[in-house]
Amino acid sequence: MLCMSEKRLAKLMKGSALASQILDSAREKIATIRQKTGVTPCLATVLVGDDESSAVYVRMKRKRCDDVGMTSLLIKLPRETTTDTLVAEVTKLANDASVHGILIQHPVPRSVDKRAAFETIPLLKDVDGVTSEAMGRLILGMPAFPACTPAGIMRLLIDHNVEFDGAHAVVIGRSPIIGRPMASMLINVHATVTLCHSRTRDLPDIVRQADILIAAVGKSRFVQGDWIKEGAIVVDAGYNVGNVGDVDFEAAMERAGMITPVPGGVGPMTIATLIEQTADAAVEQLGISL
């Protein structure tokens, strides 16, 4: 029995254990692909500029590729790279049969038209769901590889038996790589979704209505603890300087039912999903069955 001075704390939704299971499955799939075809699935990552956070993410992704036996190809381009040069590099990868997945690391310098570069990626190699075709297919419930972060979040929520049907989900963040596809995925499983951003009026009041909250606004501790509905499911998809997310974690722990930690929550799921989808892309491109 709890004393009056004791507080119930939210259950942590750690992504590490589930991500390890996904990677183990991918490792077996990659071994089978190699055994059947002699081909090793390959993920090509294009890194433009010298952003240190991006470089860290790329190193983490390459290490996970090595861990599961997948080839990792890094194309590193200087900050001064033009849109035409980036498009040309991506086109080479698109035409290279030994490359099965293409990832353009976010962010790219503002001088580059990232949409033009994204649209150069063929649908079957778009393992991070960034092309307009992949996004359109997601909205319509048609086959395509979804954006890895929201796809990883969905896997994590499902693994924790979160009920979507009729739930009010609030997504803070409207980016095409997290917020918008996240909203579409939640709609597709019958949640009622409110898509917000940092300029939404009366945002705290909207968040207080959320049964499921996805924070992906890119601002350190933006979501305050007293915004959280008692017992709500809180997913923090942010990662900011100082290893903190977009939610005031300590305060939210006292109100939420379940919450993802930062780091160790969404991040491992994103990488595991990327590798799994690259292995699946290789299966499709090689025309084999497992």
Overall SS class: alpha/beta
- Average pLDDT value? 95
Give the tally of structural domains. Answer: 2
Shape, please? globular
> For the record, what CATH class of the largest domain applies?
Alpha Beta
Percentage of residues in strands: 5-15%
Question: Largest sheet, described in full?
Answer: 6 strands, parallel
The rounded Rg comes to 19 Å
Helix count, DSSP H or I runs of 4 or more residues: 10
CATH architecture of the largest domain, by name, is 3-Layer(aba) Sandwich
Which bin fits the share of residues in helices? 40-55%
Quote the distance from N terminus to C terminus. 52 Å
Strand line-up in the sheet with most strands: 1-9-8-7-5-6
Unreliable parts: 1-5
The third-level CATH topology of the largest domain is Rossmann fold
The ordered H/E elements are EHEHEHEHHHEHEHEEHEH
| CATH H-level homologous superfamily name of the largest domain | NAD(P)-binding Rossmann-like Domain
Number of strands: 9
Structure in words:
By secondary structure, the protein is an alpha/beta fold. The chain folds into two domains: 39-124, Leucine Dehydrogenase, chain A, domain 1 (Rossmann fold); 148-267, 3-Layer(aba) Sandwich (Rossmann fold), CATH 3.40.50. The chain has helices at 16-37, 52-68, 83-94, 114-118, 132-140, 148-159, 179-188, 203-207, 249-253, 266-286; strands spanning 11-12, 42-48, 71-77, 101-104, 168-172, 192-196, 212-215, 233-236, 258-259. The chain has a six-stranded parallel β-sheet with strand order 1-9-8-7-5-6. Strands 3-2-4 form a three-stranded parallel β-sheet, with helices on both faces. Strand 8, helix 9 and strand 9 form a beta-alpha-beta unit. The relative contact order is 0.17.
